[in-house]
Every structure is written in structure tokens, then in C-alpha cells.
Design a protein that fits this description.
The chain is α+β, with helices and mostly antiparallel strands. A hairpin with a 5-residue loop joins strand 12 (221-231) and strand 13 (237-244). It has a five-stranded antiparallel sheet, with no helix packed on it. The radius of gyration is 30 Å and the shape is elongated. Helix 1 (2-13) packs antiparallel against helix 3. Helix content is 29%, strand content 28%. It has one domain (1-13, 40-143, 178-265).
Amino acid sequence: MEEYLTGKSTELLDALPKKKPKVVERAEPQRGIAGLGSIYSVTDWAADEALRVNSVLMEPEERTEEEYRAEIEAWETQVRESWAGAKAKIAAGILQPATVRVKNNTSVFLHDVELRLHLEGDISGHDWVEVESILTPSALELPTPPRRWGPKERQPLGLAHDLSWASQMGNTSVLIPSSISYENGGSVHLTVDIGDLRPRGVFESEDKELVLLVNDKEMKTIHGTWEITARGHNEVFSGEINLPVEDYRDVTELAQFILEVGKKE
């Protein structure tokens, strides 16, 4: 991550105008276009025309150098603060999702069943993601670097409104609610909406909903306690569970690929 910040910051700072040393110019004979009692250089005329065109299409840089440098420093701080969440999202894309499986061992039809599961230890829950969907810094929800120093294109009138409308029209996908909700806080609390469960029936959550991340490399087993309630039953079913922890996975290589750092020339 630090290599990513260093590379981006250097690239942004290199865009600042370089201070040119003063050069004493020697007077040379003027060559240009004579007209109206004056001589107008062809080079100066072309440069002026280019400036007129650029002034129409581009807006000059409004920030001072101090403001620009402050933006870069603020961006670096924001990236560092966001990096833990980005790493978790990378891990959620490569780890095996967790599946919740509940069996009704009674001969009673259970209605509106809810499971509450508390998993102890340095654990956190995260939404499972497809790894192909997180292959850019923006997909990891990392802050966007400041705009590179220099003039920017003028915004045509009405363009922002049109793009907003197009964005709203394009976002028409329907989200299917998950049966699992979770809360992180040193350990993780899961709530599973099971619904109705027939006698000897089995509920199994979707296989791509939740990933559990264990931050303690020494932890081999996760201990948990669970409670199940059902509508019409005044008792609470409860018990304990122990879950094995998979082998440690290093996300460095994938993180470097996403951030485009660590490449060998």
C-alpha cells in the first residue's frame, strides 16, 4: 500500500510546473508579418491562436501549489484509513464463503424460525464478493487521487444532468435480500432468518453470502454459542458450536495486482 501511495504521489507532484532558470536572450532580427506599421511574429500569432482555442475548451488551474500538495497529503491519509476495509474486501473475494446449516430434529413444524449465533474471538464478517468485481482501487472503495495539476476541460452545459439521468436509468438491478445479517465488534454476531422449518427439515443459507475473517493467525478453532426461537414456542433452543479455521491466506499478491505495484521490469 505504501508503494502505491509513493508512486501515485510522485506522479502527481511531477505534474507541477518546473521552475525554469533565468536565461539572458540575445536580440535577433525580427521576422514576421508587416502590417499597420508593426511587425508581428508568425510564432507569436500561432501561439496566441492556440491560447484562444484552449481558453474556450479548457479551464485554467485554480488551485495553488500549496492547496494541491495539501490535497495529496489528505488523500494519502484517507487511503491509509480505508486500507483495512480494502484488505477485508480482497479477502472476501478469495476465501471460501461460510454456510449456515440448521436441521429441525424435532417432530414439530416450526414457524418463523430465527437463529442468533455469537462467534468469539478476533473475527469479523464481510459480504462475499466476486474477485473479478474488485480488481480496481475504486472497486475496493479506496479514495480517488486528486485531479492531476493542470487545466481541465470545461463542462458543457447540461452534461452533468444528462449523466446523472443516464446513471439512474442504468442502475435497474434488483437486490435479493440476504437471509443472514451480522454485526462486527471484536467478535461477530449473526442473525439468520430461517423462516418455516418442517420436522426433520434442513435449512441451508446461500453459499455466497458471508465470509468470516479471522485476524488472529494463532487461532485454530472458533467457539460459538447459538439460540433458536420460533413463533408459537415459548422456549429458547440453545447450544454451542466449534468451527475449524482454514489455513492462513496471504492477499499481498492480489493487492499488488489491483494497485499495479510491485511489477518487475
